TrEMBL record:
<dbReference type="GO" id="GO:0007015">
    <property type="term" value="P:actin filament organization"/>
</dbReference>
<keyword id="KW-0067">ATP-binding</keyword>
<dbReference type="GO" id="GO:0016020">
    <property type="term" value="C:membrane"/>
</dbReference>
<feature type="region of interest" description="Actin-binding">
    <location>
        <begin position="607"/>
        <end position="629"/>
    </location>
</feature>
<feature type="binding site">
    <location>
        <begin position="144"/>
        <end position="151"/>
    </location>
    <ligand>
        <name>ATP</name>
    </ligand>
</feature>
<dbReference type="InterPro" id="IPR001609">
    <property type="entry name" value="Myosin_head_motor_dom-like"/>
</dbReference>
<comment type="similarity">
    <text>Belongs to the TRAFAC class myosin-kinesin ATPase superfamily. Myosin family.</text>
</comment>
<dbReference type="InterPro" id="IPR000048">
    <property type="entry name" value="IQ_motif_EF-hand-BS"/>
</dbReference>
<dbReference type="GO" id="GO:0051015">
    <property type="term" value="F:actin filament binding"/>
</dbReference>
<dbReference type="InterPro" id="IPR036961">
    <property type="entry name" value="Kinesin_motor_dom_sf"/>
</dbReference>
<dbReference type="GO" id="GO:0016459">
    <property type="term" value="C:myosin complex"/>
</dbReference>
<keyword id="KW-0009">Actin-binding</keyword>
<protein>
    <submittedName>
        <fullName>Unconventional myosin-XIX</fullName>
    </submittedName>
</protein>
<dbReference type="GO" id="GO:0005524">
    <property type="term" value="F:ATP binding"/>
</dbReference>
<dbReference type="InterPro" id="IPR027417">
    <property type="entry name" value="P-loop_NTPase"/>
</dbReference>
<dbReference type="GO" id="GO:0005737">
    <property type="term" value="C:cytoplasm"/>
</dbReference>
<feature type="domain" description="Myosin motor">
    <location>
        <begin position="47"/>
        <end position="744"/>
    </location>
</feature>
Length: 952
């Protein structure tokens, strides 16, 4: 027995008598609590709980303990009702994501029965698409804070689909399939190289959000993909937070380029670039070759690559250009010699005129009526213009890459019918100094949290009420008021920011703070530190309070790009730069006259379209948890984890999922899928009008199905597994499994019946065909034989004719013989041998060529016998010959010879004298001669018999 059992036993004992009597009240309560806890939760077995809903009771503490126990046992995935919790191991786990494991989950009849894994989520979504249960399209939402493992998880999901959604392909050629899945996977290293960076919290932090749509055709095969990106952190190009790095691609170029490439890109070995801090730090992602290889696979040729890398090298050179103020304010800023060199090289790499580049950076063009006025910029303004140039180039290049990737991997709309979307967005951010980027990121997280809450908590509870379910409500954190504060209408942080950004004046942080305070003081989610000197506001997000600095927010929201910079880039000899910025001008021209699009309004719009997609799909949530802030392998910090669990509402989710019915299916869909259970168990009406608008009829049918499915369970058990609402059926996972199981059994029974019918039908058809073939063969044979018989008849007629002539000839010979009868008496009569006497015959022969006359055996007897039948009595010449043969008389002058007949020949061979008429019966086929083969060489007995019958 294990120690837990011992503890449980001890618990019972202690809870019985002894402790109650002897302990003071407080310690008694404590120990009781401990005992109950020990009784409810077997701590030694905590790591075996696959689902956090099974821990008892469901509290943050027990959930945390369970997760910790599992993490120590190197189990990193745990279900939390409808959500999957993924703990980051911070080290590769051998065999956890191997091909075999993928196959195991993919081919499992019930993957849910396997250990929790990200592949269960992937497979469930895949099967939902196959099942065609509305909504068919699926979204896999991967959330968590920076470094929690979202990108890793998204990559696993993509690899899973790129493996299982193509292996069963028989329709498409292997070559095409490989190209598609490879291209889809190859989009990852490119986007990570250009969009990820090493931050303090994660060495490979995604600095943009992405929604990847994996497109599946009718056979659930991966035929393409498309990527939608959100809010690239472009400020990082020109300004990297302390101890953080720029985007990976710059370091990859620095470390991975060949000598020749370095020369071409003007990146010498010992060159220092201001915009490449911490270049001494090497991270796993610094692999230039992998990025180039992926580019090649996606169709970015060497020339295009060179254009891209020249642009990036140009940006780095720009970063080293520094300005110094001129003594005369009316004059533009100065550049030292070194900066001039950097500027020259930047211009060469960007392939723009160096003079013009310098002027653009130092002088502003103002419109005064129809005239352009040139105004020298201050040192700070020059730096802002330089940074702006770098940011706009990088952002546009990133956008071009995403479009290129999409063109390369996106399938034609007619080729796919469903999709599985993978959403990987930046996690909740809270730094020392937070600005517009953090406000947008946290706003996106609030939106996702709201979707989660709406989907699993609020919707569930509201639906229970509307469907008439008795349900004890769980309190949940609604973040609608926080969202109202950020994006609401008419007054919100965003609307005030936009207003300020559209005013044609320099922004004032203090004034904006006052406005915010005045307009939004009613919202409980915003607050201010009255004693702080820096203008700011604090927002109480669902995941915690974040302090936002107002300074610079309006400028970032405006994101102005001086038009002279754009026209300079349009003149570039680098064809890629030219292309990117010509397109940009077209865009800006089309939006001319519309109100100026700010960063937050653009972000809000793209987020709204994302939310629309999410609302129209079946979501699957995966919460990634970062077990420690230092990214140390297998280190679990309770405080870190509990904060994340509470922030993402996992405990509430678990509570609701454990007690509720997480699966809801409308009556119509339910009957369409499970109606066969009632039909084949014989308890339901066999045809239900699914188009009938009456829910009452459908409800009745649903109840029939449930009765048939649960016939062996008690009614209490029914209500714990399933509830029939007014328009939907509410199920637990266990009930769904049970229904699916029964459905599968019925379907396999039906399949078996269909197979039997088909085999029977095939057998019958084969038989009928064989009969037809026999009939045809018989008809053909019969026809051939008839033709043959006709020929034989003709031949027989010829023979008869000849025979008659021959007989006439013999008769005339016999008559001539009779004329010599006198000589015959004088000759000596020889003694007749017994054989001759017995079967005498007559043979006429001449000396040279004797004529043979065939006579009946026993010719003498016949010759003297009284006539029995006309045909068998020898008369005339025949009679005489028979006598001659019988007595073996020599012929006159040896001209002929009379011998016994050779009875084997011809028709003369009759061994017995027939009495009366003789009839030969032959059995005939219904078809004349059908059983005969038209073979000339064979003896045709049937024909002989028939001839014989005719003769007789
Ligand atoms: N399942 C895993 N197995 C092994 N290592 C992992 C796993 N998940 C994450 N990691 C490690 O954790 C690191 C951070 O993960 P990842 O980049 O996916 O985080 P993230 O949530 O996407 O962060 P950000 O929001 O900053 O992009 C990875 O580089 C990887 O080394």
């Amino acid at each position: 027995m294990n120690s837990a059992d011992d503890r449980r036993r001890a618990g019972y004992r202690n809870g019985g008598t002894e402790v109650k009597v002897s302990c003071p009240r407080l310690s008694l309560n404590d120990s009781l609590e401990g005992e109950v806890q020990a009784f409810l939760t077997d701590e030694d077995q905590l790591h075996t709980y696959d689902d956090l809903t099974k821990v008892n009771p469901v509290t943050p503490t027990t959930v945390l303990k369970c997760l910790q126990a599992r993490y120590s046992a190197k189990v990193f995935y745990t279900h939390a009702g409808c959500t999957l919790v993924a703990l980051n191991p911070f080290q590769p786990i051998p065999g956890l994501y191997s091909l075999d494991v993928m196959k195991e989950y993919h081919y499992a009849p019930q993957p849910q029965e396997f250990k929790p894994h990200i592949f269960i989520v992937a497979e469930e979504a895949y099967r939902n698409v196959q099942g065609q249960l509305e909504p068919v399209n699926q979204s896999l939402v991967v959330s968590g804070e920076s470094g929690a493992g979202k990108t890793w998880t998204s990559r696993c999901l993509m690899k899973y689909y790129a493996t299982v959604a193509v292996t069963s392909s028989v329709v498409r050629s292997q070559d095409t399939v490989e190209r598609i899945e490879k291209r889809v996977l190859d989009s990852n290293p490119i986007m990570e190289a250009f969009g990820n960076a090493c931050t303090l919290r994660n060495n490979n932090s995604s600095r943009f959000g992405k929604y990847i749509q994996l497109q599946l055709n009718r056979c659930q095969l991966l035929v393409g993909a498309s990527v939608q990106t959100y809010l690239l952190e472009k400020t990082r190009v020109a300004c990297q937070p302390a101890n953080e790095r720029n985007f990976h691609i710059f370091y990859q170029m620095m470390k991975g380029a060949t000598e020749e490439q370095r020369k071409e890109w003007k990146m010498l070995q010992d060159q220092h670039f201001v915009w490449l801090p911490r270049s001494e730090k090497t991270v796993e992602e610094d692999c230039f070759n992998e990025t180039v290889e992926a580019m090649v696979h996606l169709g970015i040729d060497t020339e295009r690559q060179n254009q891209i890398f020249r642009i990036l090298a140009g940006i780095l050179q720009l970063g080293n250009v520094s300005f110094s103020s001129s003594t005369d304010e009316s004059q533009p800023c100065n550049l030292d010699e070194q900066s001039k060199g950097f500027l020259q090289r930047a211009a060469e790499l960007l392939q723009v005129p160096a003079e013009e580049l310098q002027t653009c950076l130092k002088v502003r063009t103002l419109k005064a009526g129809k005239q352009n006025v040139l105004k020298p910029c201050s040192q700070a303004e020059c730096s802002v213009r330089r940074d702006c140039l770098a940011k706009v180039i990088y952002a546009q290049l990133f956008e071009w890459l995403v479009t290129f990737i999409n063109n390369s991997i996106c399938a034609d709309r007619s080729m796919w019918c469903n999709f599985i979307g993978v959403l990987d967005v930046y996690g909740f951010e809270c730094f020392q100094i937070n600005n517009l980027e953090q406000l947008c990121i946290n706003y996106a997280n609030e939106k996702l949290q709201q979707h989660f809450v709406a989907h699993y908590l609020r919707a569930q509870q509201e639906e229970y009420v509307s469907e008439g379910l008795k349900w004890s409500f769980v309190k949940y954190q609604d973040n609608q008021s926080c969202l109202d504060l950020i994006e609401g209408s008419p007054i919100s942080v965003f609307s005030l920011l936009n207003e300020e950004s559209r005013l044609n004046r320099a922004s004032d942080a203090k004034m904006l703070r006052v406005r915010l305070e005045k307009e939004l003081c009613d919202n409980a989610n915003i607050s201010w530190d009255k004693f702080s000197k820096v203008p700011h506001f604090t927002v109480a997000h669902y995941a915690g309070k974040v302090n936002y600095q107002i300074e610079g927010m309006v400028e970032k929201n405006k994101d102005p790009v001086p038009p002279e910079l754009i026209s300079l880039l349009q003149k570039s000899d680098n064809r890629l730069l030219q292309q990117i910025f010509t397109e940009k001008e077209v865009e800006s021209q089309t939006s001319k006259g519309l109100s100026k699009v700010t960063v937050v309004s653009k972000f809000k719009n793209s987020l709204e379209s994302l939310m629309k997609i999410l609302h129209s799909t079946t979501p699957h949530y995966t919460r990634c948890i970062k077990p420690n802030p230092d990214c140390k392998p297998l280190t679990f910090r309770k405080e870190e984890v509990i904060m994340q669990l509470e922030a993402c509402g996992i405990v509430e989710t678990i509570h609701i999922s454990a007690a509720g019915f997480p699966i809801r299916i409308p009556f119509k869909s339910f009957i369409q899928r499970y109606g066969l259970i009632a039909k084949y168990s014989g308890s339901g009406s066999h045809s239900v009008d699914l188009e009938a608008d009456s829910d009452g009829v459908l409800q009745l049918e649903v109840k029939n199905v449930l009765r048939a499915a649960l016939h062996c369970l008690s009614s209490e058990k029914h209500s714990s597994l399933v509830h029939c609402g007014r328009t939907k059926v509410f199920l637990t996972q266990a009930m769904l499994d049970l229904l699916e199981d029964q459905r599968k059994k019925i379907l396999s029974r039906c399949a078996f019946s269909i197979q039997c019918c088909w085999l029977r039908y095939q057998r019958r058809r084969r038989h009928a065909r064989r009969q037809s073939a026999t009939l045809i063969q018989a008809v053909v044979r019969s026809w051939l034989v008839r033709k043959q018989v006709q020929r034989w008849n003709t031949a027989a007629a010829v023979i008869q004719n000849t025979w008659r002539k021959w007989r006439a000839l013999l008769k005339s010979l016999a008559e001539a013989e009779l004329d010599d009868a006198k000589d015959f008496v004088e000759e000596e009569v020889p003694v007749l041998s017994p054989v001759v006497r017995e079967r005498g015959s007559v043979q006429l022969s001449t000396i040279q060529e004797p004529v043979t006359v065939r006579g009946w055996p026993m010719g003498l007897a016949l010759a003297s016998a009284p006539s029995i039948s006309v045909s068998l009595t020898a008369t005339g010449f025949q009679k005489m010959m028979s006598v001659m043969a019988s007595v073996s008389l020599p012929s006159r002058r040896g001209k002929y010879k009379v011998e016994t007949n050779q009875y084997t020949q011809g028709l003369a061979s009759i061994r017995a004298q027939p009495k009366g008429s003789v009839k030969l019966h032959c059995q005939r086929s219904p078809l004349l001669y059908a059983d005969r083969k038209p073979d000339m060489n064979r003896v045709v007995t049937g024909f002989n018999e028939i001839l014989l019958e005719k003769t007789l």
